[in-house]
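Blinded run. Sample ID left blank on purpose so nobody reads anything into the name before looking at the predicted structure. Input follows.
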Amino acid sequence: MSLYKKRSSRRELREAGDVATLVAGIIIASIILALLVRIQRGLLGIVLGGIASILAIYWILELRKTLTGDVKLKMRETKGWNSDIIEDADEILIVGNVPGPEDKIEIHLHEDLLEVKAGRGFHELVRLPSKVVGFTRAYNNGVLEIRLKKAQQQM
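Blinded prediction complete.
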């Protein structure tokens, strides 16, 4: 037999808290139902008691979500990258809004695909209209400017 006491895991503590919250909610709902039935005799008392019980359970569950941190803020997802592609004889210019700081921006060139990664889970692939050999970038106030040098066409 071990001399050390087994430590409770966080999951066990959370499950115990969930059971305690549920029991407290049932007790509160029962008290409200009993009081309303006693005060408002008949069918109206039962209806009002039922409504009060349902609302009590709802608010107890919402309070538990808030206290355990299950409430998550939903980020607005954008549909596609808000960018402009301008093609010239010698180069391709891509200008677009990119979230996050400059040091989080990663740009990779894969044949005819340009991959842009940045903060807040931003990840975009851009299909390039022609082959390129290199690029330069500039980032100012959330606007990324990428200049891609076109490969020389061999005839």
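Unblinding after everyone has recorded impressions. Residues 19 and 111 are 57 Å apart (CA to CA).
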